[in-house]
Amino acid sequence: MTFLSLPLLLLVVLVPAGILVAGRIDARRRARLAALTGSGWVRPAGSAARRSSIADRMAALLTVVAFVLLAIAVARPQATIPVPRVEGTVLLTFDVSASMAAADAKPTRIEAAKAIARAIVDRKPPGVVVGVVAFSDSGLSIQTPTADQATIVQAIDRLGPARGTSLGQGILASLGAIQQAETDTPAGYYSNRSAEPTAAPTPAAPGSHDAAAIVLFSDGENNERPDPVAAAQTAADRGIRIETIGVGTAAGSTLDLDGFRVQTQLDETLLRQIADMTAGTYEPAANADPAAIYASLGRNLVARDESIEITAVVAGVGLVLLIAAGILSLARSGRLP
User: Of the candidates 227, 299, 247, which has an alpha carbon nearest to the alpha carbon of residue 92?
Assistant: First the structure.
């Protein structure tokens, strides 16, 4: 449990302080009563005395618990609970290798890819979460799947060209992000803990897992392990489609990288192969239709942990207990506890 107004939780300390004050007041009251009667305060005898004592203690206990709960409610408690929802998951996977700085797609390949991705986010229907993965010579999850469009766009805006290209790492990182999103609340992407061992899943039909899809933005040039075709086969075996969007031109462009002039061009053959293996589609960036990404996306029932404020619940229980204590005390002694 967490609290939105944690300093106010110190009000709980007032409860034992109030008990001490109430005890002193009751002791003085009894002393005055004894002085007035001249023979001390006389309790009822036998079973009546026991019933009266139990009732008084129960009323006092209910009162104390009620005030503790009301003090906790003032601090606005939050509880993390699994909330079931129907969701589809889309991973926007960006090639951020150095070749994506080429200007054969205007203004550059990476900026052209980001513009298409923003349009995809703008058209996101309810019930779909979108994540962002970037890869150069390794795969890195930039933004865990979320329904917050502003957060997704901010993650896209931060992207920029880096080093080499490993399409395989990008695909595998995206598969991991999808699995985490569909299993539980996305968490632990940057943990150094080893993954839990799992049995090899039975291969599914390509495209059969329609509640998730990967949108791969790349020029298709690959110069790092693992083999992107093998990574695509892993996606196909899990039934997850990869929609590839080719960024660049077949004519290509010449880049100046650390004093070396390097020719780079769009490899449509590899991107088509990845899409075909996974029952996805390939489109050049100029022809990409952002709305089509969601056309065949299904939904899965997932449980996602969410923090929910429970102030009303805690305060309500406290009020009920306080009323119960008052009724019990009035019934036994004709006074409030």
Answer: 247
Torsion of CA 217, 176, 162, 250, to 10 degrees: -30
Alpha carbons 142 and 198: distance in angstroms, whole number: 25
Q: What is the dihedral of CA 136, 141, 147, 150, to 10 degrees?
A: -60
Antiparallel, parallel or unpaired: β 241-246 and 212-218: parallel
- pLDDT per position as a tens digit, 92-140: 999 888 888 888 888 999 999 999 999 999 999 888 889 999 887 666 7
For residue 261, the cross-strand partners are: 256
**How distant, in Å, are the alpha carbons of 325, 335, 337 from that of 331?**
10, 8, 11
Q: Could you report the per-residue pLDDT of 38-66, keeping only the tens digit for each?
A: 655 555 555 555 555 677 778 878 888 88
Structure token digits, residue 37: 């009667």
Q: Are 246 and 201 in contact (CB under 8 A)?
A: no
Dihedral sign from CA coordinates of 304, 305, 306, 308: positive
Q: Evaluate whether 167 touches 138 at the Cβ level (below 8 Å).
A: no
Q: What is the pTM of this model?
A: 0.64
> Helical H runs in the chain?
14-37, 46-74, 109-122, 149-157, 167-183, 228-237, 268-277, 311-333
The DSSP code for 207 is T
DSSP-derived secondary structure for 83-94: EEEEEEEEEEEE
Place of tokens 């406290």: 318
Q: Residues 253, 265: contact at Cβ < 8 Å?
A: yes
d(CA 211, CA 221): 29
Q: Which of 320, 318, 310 is nearest to 67 (CA)?
A: 318
